[in-house]
Amino acid sequence: MMPEKFDKLRDMETFTEGLMNRIFAFQEKQHPAWDESKPFPQRIGAIPLHNLMFSNPDRDPKLLGPTIAHYYPLREENRALVYYAKQVAEDPVVLDVHARNGFIGSLLAREGVNVVGLRDPLEKPNQIANFYDPTCYDMREGGLADVDFPIDVAFSAWMPSGKNFTPDIVRLKPKLIIYVYTEHVNEYSKLWQTGCAAAFNDLPDNYRIVDEWSIARPANLLQEAWPDLAASIEETRYVRIFADQSVPEIPQYAPEQMAEPYDWEAELEMALLTIEAKQHLRSRGIAV
Hints:
Layout: H1 12-27, H2 40-44, H3 50-53, H4 75-85, E1 93-96, H5 103-109, E2 114-119, E3 137-141, E4 153-157, H6 166-170, E5 176-182, H7 197-201, E6 207-217, H8 221-225, E7 235-244, H9 264-283
Parallel strand pairs: 1-2, 1-4, 2-3, 4-5
Antiparallel strand pairs: 5-7, 6-7
């Protein structure tokens, strides 16, 4: 008998039908995400996890970055980041250092902080060029040298490959620096996919780590559950949070109540459950 936690998989056929319809609609650009005139909450609703992991088939990688984002955000993780931001200022100003289309930073802003996005005109634009919430996210063009206002938090998510923005970040004297990155090495360039080792490790002595964690994405996450979907590499995403020495000790984040997850997290849960169920069956000698 299978453990009770796998009961959700009994609805896999119905779930799969809905998932495939959503993926098709997104690829055909029938999803509100493609329409910049729509409200942000409508644009992020029912985005398939597949379309956060893979770009649209019609994207030209020579000209464009990912269709939406470099990674799939998690609601509870964003709440944790905002918790830390609010420990250094009552109403913190968060600088989204690599804003791109504003998608990642807007999800952070919607948890209750002021976020200013810094979009580098030298970086490839996302296929969906503007995907931010104007009600809580302030998008600006330029680089770190153009920042002429005080910030409390620097949020560096997916630093460009092989680069080290940390010296320019610390010159702004943020009280908190949040990094989201991976140590995956590009098989062609041999560079880290995000930043470089020094960027996330060699900070000035006045910065200390206050929290860090990692989130592993198994190989073939979607294909294990839905064989018709594309294969994917195993990847680990790291979060590392540094505070300036002027910041008192910060208690670690401990949610009193879990938040409603993003829509794509339902597909993530089903995919991970499928992988776990297969492992359970194999451990009992059942071939799957």
